[in-house]
Amino acid sequence: MGSTEQHGPHLPLDTDTRIAGAVARAVATRLLEASDRLQWLVAPAIGYGDSGEHQSFPGTISIGTEALATLLVEFGRSATCWAQRLLFVNGHGGNVVALDRAVRLLRSEGRDAAWCACTASGADAHAGHTETSVLLHISPADVLTDRWCAGNGAPLADLLPSMRSGGVAAVSEVGVLGDPTTATAAEGERIFTEMVDGCARRVARWTPGADGMLT
Predict the structure, then answer these.
(1) Is 80 exceeded by the pLDDT of residue 133?
(2) What is the pTM of this model?
(3) Distance CA 171, CA 167 (A)
(4) 56: closest CA among 180, 149, 162, 183?
(5) Choosing a second label site near 162 at 20 to 30 A (CA), which of 41, 76, 135, 141?
């Protein structure tokens, strides 16, 4: 699951969804290779999320926390009619509140559901070095390198007060938090591998009594 939101002038609107989908497929392949007893299926991605902080930029479509949480709950109820386990692989930070709420409810109903984030150490916040590098690795034809430009590189914690009141537009005119001009495909491959390794490792440790977010 990801989002449909602006990612600066150089990345596609479905950047988060592409990354989450690629990570989910890679993790499923690795888990299938590691076990002859379990069958892992990857559902089509959920491409709309909670992206209100990007609403000032054209192209952004946000369905908000309430609608997303409801969607995830109904998705989970349906899928667990036949699936023993359900894992949401998340590529957008704005989805976290809805994910926590939905997975908590699904688990209270006796369903073995959890979620896992696509994370990498030292990642910048949005459409910068990290995401641009990963897209250069998985979707190079869709990165407009002639349009990229550096955005606000301040730590996210410093930007949050302004973002809470005015969204990303309050801290970056181009919608970028970080510096995409330093991105490379080789760096993207390294970051993507770290995301897959982390998610696969957390899934391997998943036990029926685990909390909703796999860490």
Answers:
(1) yes
(2) 0.94
(3) 8
(4) 162
(5) 135
